[in-house]
Amino acid sequence: MEIHNHNLNIHYSLPNEIWKKLAELYKEMPGWSGFIDGIPHWYAQDNDKRIINASVEPSGLQFYAEMQQDEWNTWFERFKKEASVLLGFEVGEPEDGVDFPNL
Q1: 62: domain CATH number?
Q2: Which member of 21, 32, 52, 82 has the greatest number of CB atoms within 10 A?
């Protein structure tokens, strides 16, 4: 298992309709476990050592994961791709030069 921390350009100040759409996308992603104390979680149940969770931070939507690199890459790329289509702007990592949207 490897630890992964990544931020996306989904800022806390985005409108509520964006966050409602994201909540629906969360449920469609592999390993969905539900909201635990308001925080979305994937995996981490039934003795599964993998875990993903997300939190809204000033730097954007932050993901924390413990899983194999290849599996994480696949999951995270799918999330960014599906979120981009759903939200109508490119979702990516600010560290990679993806800007925050002007909505």
Answers
A1: 3.30.160
A2: 52
